[in-house]
Write a structure and sequence with these properties.
Oligomer: single chain
Distance between the termini: 31 Å
Number of strands: 0
Helix content: over 70%
Order of helices and strands: HHHH
Number of helices: 4
Strand content: under 5%
Structural class: mainly alpha
Largest sheet: none
């Protein structure tokens, strides 16, 4: 065989787990931003929550996807790489958002939001 079927099954399971986790993270991120506006969370509180509930989870997803076998012959190889890059970009965007909030830097916050939206469009 060109590739290990067990590796492919593991990759497909991880992709499914990632897609479910990503949907939950995106929903949490949106809720955090809305709650920040609605409940008047401080910038520091919102930054801490984004790091905990968004950045850290994308970091875990990135690590889990990176731990999969790197066999380019796997049918899921391209999807694994796409989702790994997406998780990395979302992690970085959420970290930039937290940093921008702490610095009270609207330009950095706006750039982080643009980067997150762009990463989402590229994933689709």
């Amino acid at each position: 065989p060109q590739y290990s079927w067990q590796d492919e099954l593991a990759a497909r399971r991880e992709i499914g787990d990632f897609l479910r986790e990503d949907a939950a993270i995106v929903a949490d991120w949106n809720r955090l931003l809305a709650a920040g506006e609605r409940n008047g969370l401080s910038f520091d509180d919102l930054a801490n929550r984004i790091e905990r509930d968004v950045s850290a989870r994308y970091q875990r997803s990135f690590e889990e996807l990176s731990a999969l076998p790197g066999d380019p012959a796997l049918p899921s190889a391209a999807a694994i790489e796409q989702f790994r890059e997406y998780a990395e970009r979302q992690r970085d965007a959420s970290r930039e958002m937290a940093e921008g909030l702490r610095e009270r830097d609207p330009r950095k916050i706006g750039e982080a939001l643009r980067e997150a939206r762009e990463a989402g469009r590229k994933r689709e």
